[in-house]
Specification:
This protein is an alpha/beta fold. About 35% of the residues lie in helices and about 25% in strands. The protein has a single domain, classed as Rossmann fold, CATH 3.40.50.360. Strands 1, 2, 3, 4, 5, 6 and 10 form a 7-stranded mixed sheet that branches. A 3-stranded antiparallel sheet has the order 7-9-8, with no helix packed on it. Keywords: Electron transport, Flavoprotein, FMN, Transport.
Length: about 160
């Protein structure tokens, strides 16, 4: 039986709430990034990494140490999926951009990043998290598009197949 974990960094509680929802749907352990260790990452088969985006596209503050934990872990053979929270109205030019740094860290550690999401149906100007026309993971705007959050989560979880 495979093991799935959900790791999040949250300042306002939004990303934590999304992580809990994902954990419930996947039967996964939910871990605050401040409690993350390489051993926890290496013991999982499937890993979800989530951050909110702050300022000019930066990671949530707790992730600055956490991203080094990810980069230092041996994630060869692991599947990693990324999710992010952002504000597509107030920060339309950096919407969910923090996801890209998590994706890059997971790939640098040898993981296969899965769960890219089409940009169709999103309203934003730019995002570093868009690669080849898709978000590197699940982008959520629980401020301006909270009516779409549940459906986007359900569709993404189903597509992941964890």
């Amino acid at each position: 039986m495979s093991k799935t974990i959900v790791v999040y960094g949250s300042t306002t509680g939004t990303c934590e709430s999304i992580a809990q929802t994902l954990g419930d749907k996947l039967g996964a352990e939910v871990i605050n990034v401040t409690d993350l260790t390489a051993d926890k990452l290496e013991a999982a088969d499937h890993i979800l990494l989530g951050t909110s985006t702050w300022g000019a596209g930066e990671l949530q503050d707790d992730w600055y140490d956490g991203v080094n934990v990810v980069k230092g872990a041996n994630l060869a053979g692991k599947q990693v999926a990324i999710f992010g929270c952002g504000d597509s109205a107030s920060y339309s030019d950096t919407f969910c951009a923090g996801m890209k740094e998590l994706s890059d860290a997971a790939e640098a550690a040898g993981a296969t990043v899965v769960g890219a999401v089409s940009t169709d149906g999103y309203t934003y100007d730019d995002s570093d998290a868009v690669v080849d026309g898709k978000f590197v993971g699940l982008a959520l705007d629980d401020v301006n598009e909270d009516d779409k959050t549940a459906g986007r989560i359900d569709a993404w979880v189903a597509a992941l197949g964890f």
